[in-house]
Predict the structure.
Amino acid sequence: MFNKDQQSGPYLWPSRLRAYFSAKPDLFAVLQGASTIFFVLIAGAGLGYFALVLIARSIGAEQYGVYAFLFSLVTVLSLITALGLPYAGVRYFAQYKEEEDHERLRGFFDFGRLLVLCSGLIVAAIASAIIIALDIHPKQTSVATTLIAFSAIPILGLTSFYIAAARAFFWPLLTEAPVRIVRPLVLIIGVGGLVLAGYQPTSLETMIIAVAGTLIGLCILHFYVGPRLSRTFGDASPRREPRSWLGVSLPMLVPSAFAIMLVELDVIFVGLFLGPETTAVYQAAARTSILVSFFFGSVISLGAPRIAALYASGRMPELQSLSRSITQWIFWPTLAFSIFLLATGKWILSLFGDDFTSGYAILSILIFSAVFNAATGPVTILLTMTGHQNICARVFVISLVCNIFLHITLIPMFGVTGAATAVLSTIVISRTWLLLEVNSRLDIYPSMLGKWKRSKEKTVRPM
């Protein structure tokens, strides 16, 4: 009989992994929750992708393009009306939880969700009034479709705020399942049911079902996250600091808006310049490329509160170790899956219809941008979770202006390939810039691209 300690080869892997993770408890906590999120994302990807294919084949490329355009527009508007509070929430929920500051925890929760809901309702009402008064809407759809889409603005904003609380408290199922599982499942049941009943759905019916699925997801979050938080802060009197919270959340709106806009703005610009059928092809390729980012999203979503907690307690060596480890656990799976997706991309796109295979070039460009994004590591959350959100805001404002300029310039010249190239260029510029800022201001090197030379000036850690 061999002693376990004397064995070699594969038999040693469990003990090596235990030793590895015992030396990195923060990474283990992140990956433990991230593994749950990852499997939810995989399940959601399957449901979501099946829902998109079902919609494209059921309503046709033109109506699918209208639906994709409107939902992208609504997503961007909901993000802006939330005023950055969902993203500031990841930081504040984690910080107040770490400090056991139940008064400010309750105050931020009550203030944040009320403001997000009210601002969303106001923007939805104003946008709807403009649509009705001026009769402005896509030519291929009705005013009713556009108005129903706008009704999702406050729903999406409030959903993001609840998800921020779930992330900070490491409730992994609640961070993804209501959006990734519930909405596509409702779409599949709703659109599939209409098709089986012999009815030809349009973008109107599809939008109604999508908004209903989003509302159901919000209800799940409301009835699970709210009571759990109430048990945490108990009878503590709320302490509100709206000026301080908004002073942080508004600058954080820029990087958060930038991340979403990179996914949605290209669809909007393609819709404006090239029409709904081309939008349908581009959106199918763009949503396929997002599959590569699952590893990034599943780890980053729980890495943010852990980074905030480490920085708040001044544990910079642990922060360096965690940041680098997060990057490695993001990059290698992303690279492997990217190669697989490039090999099977044309077949996957053909599921939407034969005309959709023309989006393979778009898919290839967007996949490369996702790999570069993974290689730079968690640079955005390293800055936003450590009090450098204003730096992120400056980087992303300039990058967003460049992104819009590139879309306006390249789409008329190169069509959908120009849109994908604009996204790739913007990601390379912004992520490289952010990486240099992390190196110089935090003395942290998270990237797979090596230790880049940092500035001689070093920012003092804000208290």
Remarks:
- Confidence is low (pLDDT under 50) at residues 1-13, 453-463.
